[in-house]
User: Which sequence fits this backbone?
């Protein structure tokens, strides 16, 4: 037995060393293609690639590769009985599980929600607890009894097949190693193409914002570099170039994506920037690269509604495919105290929810992420509840588009007036 390993880790290692590894090692296809390092630079401490546990964290167990004897591809319902939200085994939105691309294809899955536990890309730990906090955030919502979104009378969990795809691989000691494995894992979802030409839409729940780099890069791997635009909701612009020698962190994914050509600057839209970052030089870099941004200063001067309309119009003025990245610090910390880098003066839920729903209904969103939820920084459950709702708004918008409801700012006539004469 390998010295120093837990029993579970030892069993995994013995399994891996006992014969050829047939399972995919996520991220291995990107090795040698990581973000460039300037000439002459070396990591302070190199990695031991001969360590038998080197790839344990990113090699799936056989059960998750669908190799269990007699198992037909398809999704697995974890619920035995019809229970309310708090009485069931937690999955994202209490949805069934899928483990492999074959499962996604067999069940004609529309959306696969997956967790990503990155936590080393930020100086404020806690985002690794985000995915399971969202899974456990159903305090009263009766997911076992389907109900439509009241504003639009569309229930995404009835209109679409939505599954929990489990968690992406994570080296809890290295963002650099983790991001390429996440990229491979997300790409595995996006590569599943149905007979009608549609692809599975990944919804990634993080985790810190270094995830934007592998999540968007995975989409570019499938849809083509430059063919995916990004709407980025955040208090910060996350395009830092230098970070103590590191080339990826939660403050660097935007620079990395544009530097490597995955997204063109003109197709990058940022919303709700505020506080003390970006600085003057950073704003100049954004202008030079053609980024479109909408700060809280602009929102305060012009009002939310016209800025929202501009963001939606700009999202349509670009590539065919759109990705939305939502950092929980977009919210004012009065509504989301559970985030690692809170900035006062942010958006309210009443402002966030409509634009997420509308972007997903009125543009071709092929991927979505919610990041920087750090639930242990919140003594209540409100941060996770709002993260859950952001995802629900996204799913509702995607379902509306699937149903052909894409008119601007659609709302059901039943919910905007009581219909008993003039108000």
Assistant:
């Amino acid at each position: 037995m390998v010295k120093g390993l837990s029993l579970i880790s030892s069993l995994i290692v013995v399994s891996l060393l006992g014969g050829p590894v047939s399972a995919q090692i996520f991220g291995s296809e990107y090795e040698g293609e990581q973000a460039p390092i300037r000439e002459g630079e070396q990591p302070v401490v190199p990695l031991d690639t001969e360590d038998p546990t080197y790839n344990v964290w990113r090699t799936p167990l056989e059960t998750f590769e669908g190799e269990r004897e007699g198992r037909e591809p398809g999704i697995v319902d974890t619920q035995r009985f019809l229970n309310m939200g708090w009485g069931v085994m937690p999955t994202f939105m209490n949805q069934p599980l899928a483990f492999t691309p074959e499962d996604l294809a067999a069940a004609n899955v529309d959306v696969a929600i997956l967790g990503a536990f990155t936590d080393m890309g930020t100086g404020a730990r806690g985002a690794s607890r985000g995915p399971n906090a969202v899974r456990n955030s159903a305090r009263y919502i009766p997911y076992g009894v389907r109900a439509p979104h009241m504003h639009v009378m569309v229930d995404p969990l009835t209109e679409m097949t939505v599954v929990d795809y489990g968690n992406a691989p994570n080296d809890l000691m290295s963002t650099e190693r983790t991001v390429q494995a996440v990229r491979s894992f997300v790409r595995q979802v996006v590569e599943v193409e149905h007979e009608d030409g549609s692809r599975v839409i990944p919804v990634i729940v993080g985790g810190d914002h270094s995830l934007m780099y592998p999540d968007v890069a995975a989409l570019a791997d499938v849809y083509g570099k430059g063919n995916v635009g990004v709407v980025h909701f955040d208090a910060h612009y996350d395009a830092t170039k230098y970070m103590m020698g590191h080339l990826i962190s939660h403050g660097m994914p935007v620079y990395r994506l544009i530097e490597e050509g995955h997204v063109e600057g003109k197709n990058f839209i940022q919303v709700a920037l505020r506080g003390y970052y970006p600085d003057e030089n950073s704003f100049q870099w954004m202008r030079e690269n053609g980024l479109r941004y909408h700060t809280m200063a602009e929102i305060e001067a012009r009002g939310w509604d016209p800025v929202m309309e501009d963001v939606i119009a700009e999202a349509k003025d670009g590539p065919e495919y759109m990705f939305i990245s939502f950092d929980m610090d977009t919210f004012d910390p009065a509504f989301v105290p559970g985030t690692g880098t809170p900035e006062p003066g942010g958006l309210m839920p009443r402002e966030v929810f409509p634009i997420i729903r509308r972007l997903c209904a009125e543009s071709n969103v092929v991927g979505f992420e919610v990041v920087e939820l750090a639930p242990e920084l919140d003594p209540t459950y409100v941060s996770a509840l709002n993260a859950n709702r952001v995802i629900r708004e996204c799913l509702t918008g995607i379902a509306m588009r699937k149903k052909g409801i894409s008119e601007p700012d659609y709302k059901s006539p039943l919910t905007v007036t009581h219909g008993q004469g003039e108000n």
Notes: The beta strands are 111-116, 162-167, 201-206, 228-233, 268-273, 292-295, 321-327, 365-371. Residues 382-403 form the longest helix (22 residues). The first strand starts at residue 111 and ends at 116. Residues 210 and 248 are 7 Å apart (CA to CA).
